Amino acid sequence: VLPTAEGERDPSQWWSLIAAHAVTLWNSVPALLDLLVDYGRRVGVRAHGAGVTSLRLAMLSGDWIGLTLPQAIRSLAPGCAVVSLGGATEAAIWSVLYPIEAVDPAWTSIPYGRPMKNQRLYVLNDAWQLCPVWARGSLYIAGDGLALGYWRDQERTAASFVSHPRTGERLYRTGDLARYRPDGC
Q1: pLDDT tens across 68-120, in order?
Q2: In what order do the strands lie in the sheet with 137-143?
Q3: Residues 76, 121: one domain?
Q4: Helices (H), the chain
Q5: Which of 83, 127, 171, 181 has a Cα at 20 to 30 A from 10?
Q6: Are strands 25-28 and 96-100 parallel, antiparallel or unpaired?
Q7: Which PANTHER family match (predicted)?
Q8: Number of CB atoms found within 10 A of residue 96's CB
Q9: 150 to each of 75, 90, 145, how far by Cα in Å?
Q10: Within this chain, do residues 63 and 119 fall inside the same structural domain, yes or no?
Q11: Is residue 102 domain-resident?
């Protein structure tokens, strides 16, 4: 179910469509779900009754997820599971996922997650060694989803798709900084 061109930026139309078609899956950047939640809190339930209670899964990717968003959508759709997805276009877009169950009050952000099947993530220091827990390093993606490179751009391909000097494994250098948590996420 997709909104009309006029309604693609209108959370009231999204809300109405979810209610009318009993939509069960939401897939967007977090900011759009924030807009839906904000609308729902202000007018959605009063204006549309049951509203978004049919939602069973919210898949969020492409940006930072606010710490309050998972519980906010669950307050409007109590059975809704929330999953954070991440990765790079160069590695099949989604390489990592994190089911957001309870948000720890000590968190400053939602954990990035664990690699999906046939994908691997490495946080490496400048000496190509795995970083210890909480130490910041460069994030690399490996696995079956890795692209061959950039179309007709050998220079960019060579800079971004590298071989680990010790293992020989082909890696994609994301350009992002990351760190391992004690739970591996």
Answers
A1: 999 999 999 999 999 999 999 999 899 999 999 999 999 999 999 999 999 99
A2: 119-124, 137-143, 170-178, 161-163
A3: no
A4: 11-21, 30-39, 45-48, 69-76, 154-160
A5: 83
A6: unpaired
A7: NONRIBOSOMAL PEPTIDE SYNTHETASE, PYOCHELIN SYNTHASE PCHF
A8: 23
A9: 43, 8, 14
A10: no
A11: no
Q: Is 14 helix (H, G, I), strand (E, B) or coil?
A: helix
User: Residue 107: inside a domain, yes or no?
Assistant: no
Residue 87 CA to residue 97 CA, distance in Å, equals 9
pLDDT tens, residue by residue, 135-158:
999 999 999 999 999 999 999 999
Number of domains in the chain: 2
Q: What residues contact residue 85 under an 8 Å CB cut-off, 6+ apart?
A: 59, 60, 61, 94, 96, 97, 113
pTM assigned to the model:
0.89
Pairing of strands 137-143, 170-178: antiparallel
CATH number for the domain spanning 140: value is 2.30.38.10
Does residue 33 lie in a domain region? yes
**Inside any domain, residue 93:** no
Rounded CA separation 168/39 (Å): 51
Instruction: Residue 78: give its domain's CATH number.
Output: 3.40.50.980
Which residue bears the tokens 């690699």? Answer: 115
| Largest CA-CA distance found in the chain, in angstroms, rounded | 61
